[in-house]
Amino acid sequence: MNRRKFIKNSILASAISTTLWEFPFRSFANTTPKNILVLGGTYFLGPAFVEAARAAGHSLTLFNRGVTNPDMFPHLEKLRGYRSPATEEEDFSALAKRKWDAVIDVWPHDPSMVTSAAKLLKDRTKHYLYVSSIAAYAEDQLAQPHITEETPLAQWDGDQSPYCRGKAESERQLNAIIGHNLTIVRPCGIKGVRDDTPDALDWLRRLQNGRQHIAPGDGNDPVTIVDVKDVAEFLVLAIDKSIYSTFNLTGRPMTFRYLLEECKAVTHSDAELVWIPGDWLHQHGIDSVYLSNWLRKFPDWRPEPSMKGFFQISSEKAYGVGWQTRPLRDTLIDCLEYFASIDGYQWKDTLSPEEEAKLLELWEHRTSSP
Ligand SMILES: NC(=O)c1ccc[n+]([C@@H]2O[C@H](COP(=O)([O-])OP(=O)(O)OC[C@H]3O[C@@H](n4cnc5c(N)ncnc54)[C@H](OP(=O)(O)O)[C@@H]3O)[C@@H](O)[C@H]2O)c1
What we know:
Layout: H1 3-18, E1 35-39, H2 45-55, E2 59-64, E3 77-80, E4 100-105, H3 111-121, E5 125-131, H4 162-178, E6 182-187, E7 190-191, H5 199-208, E8 212-216, E9 222-223, E10 226-227, H6 228-240, E11 245-249, E12 254-255, H7 256-266, E13 272-276, H8 278-283, H9 291-297, H10 316-320, H11 328-341, H12 353-364
Parallel strand pairs: 1-2, 1-4, 2-3, 4-5, 5-6, 6-11, 7-10, 8-13
Antiparallel strand pairs: 9-12
Helix pairs in contact: 1-11, 2-6, 3-4, 5-7, 7-11
The chain binds NADP nicotinamide-adenine-dinucleotide phosphate.
């Protein structure tokens, strides 16, 4: 059976089994239709937001360059322009002097880009929304579990990556520019339709072929994944109900065992998970010192003590105002379906079957070695 057929069969079977799940009830009845300007809107989270907002009855205008998926949403109003950290290069002329009920800035992390749009639009909307990230938190805060929205963010002149510092500084500046009528969301890793990072897919594809597979750690490490549709629907909820403030959107932590068992369930796999402690993997060449290595071989597993809280960030504030999150199975099915829809996509496991088999054999015959 070829790859696409296999994935499609898995999806079909899973779709049938998920009808047994209780889906959270999302009702957009009784919302007042609003005019919303989307800065971005055509790559990943943008389209999910557009779809959720349209389903809720809102009118949308997209502002972008017309480079990414220019044919998406043919019936929506599209304004073309250009955003840049260099003010002299920016072109916001298409926005003219128009007003919107809500404006959402979906994608940038460069504070100059974020602030110039906010300054231009702040008096032309009642509600401004910005998509940040949990990456905005200061790195030294991520060792503690259950951090909330009050936890300090990365310093602008800190030594973390420009993405983290940029999101943090953009938030600070937006709070100063917009003030009260501002909603900021901080999602964790977002998965689902149109996500082209294959970390969840790695686990799904690895496990769906049966056989034994390395499951890192003891199964109790926490992990969070948020569905792109759930992030989008929270943003629409915030617009509908005029919910301001800052919200973590990480969902509730699950164990790594649950994640892998759900990957097996979705692909109807009888794979055997062999739980191997991180120290042993480290001693045998899958090196925990190099973070990128962990991420590549065992996606979404962050066992380092300095990141103990990374997958335990609290989203209780968002749940408290009505956020709903869907079952992980739905998200995993969307991941499979999306990758199956990409013509010519060739999945390649970051942990080769040969390397994995060798490690499993060493693990099975460990007696004298550590
Ligand atoms: N993926 C994750 O796991 C994750 C986790 C936490 C937070 N986040 C956040 O989630 C958001 C995801 O954003 P997205 O990329 O999916 O947003 P999007 O709005 O779907 O796509 C990006 C948009 O920006 C437009 N654009 C790019 N360069 C532009 C420019 N110079 N001037 C004007 N428009 C421009 C693109 O259109 P054109 O190219 O046609 O201009 C496109 O419409 C980001 O804020 C990210 O930091 C992601």
